[in-house]
Amino acid sequence: SVYNFIKKNNIPVDSIDDIDTSIAKQKNDPFYQVTNGLLTISFVVVLVLSMVGFLIYWIISIRQRELLFGVYRAMGMSMKGVLQILCVEHIFSSLCSIAIGIGIGVITTKVFLPLVSLAYIPEKHVIPMHVVTSPFDMIRLGICIAVMLIVCFIVLGNILKKMKISQVLKLGED
Fold it and tell me: How far is Cα 99 from Cα 165, in angstroms, rounded to an integer?
């Protein structure tokens, strides 16, 4: 409506600063798109690497304690009890590492945000940059981590089901 009023009344204008146009230009700016793309790809790569590292650690840990699980079974513990021990162990180690990761992420964001703001033409910044955390984004992040952990638990559960724990004890006697 402002543009139409200016055209109708032939008002001379030196320059017009429209925030909607400015936001659209910034969203389509290749520099911002590349930065967002790199951050997204790096997040996916870190998530996959974390999942692989998590699986490698727990597979090696379970294989090393195979004889111990056989001893538990020989003492009368059910397979369900062995699985409960492993689940509690996974939950405590995973929740602690996730909490520490969240803390490190928050601190890193607070410390390195000024460096990011310097990269985006600092002389045009009237208002300093600050972190805005959307609860919806945190929920999506939590869902990604939960899916990763569930996939890992399913893989580890299948490995445990395939293990012949009672035969391991017999091998230990030999």
Answer: 34
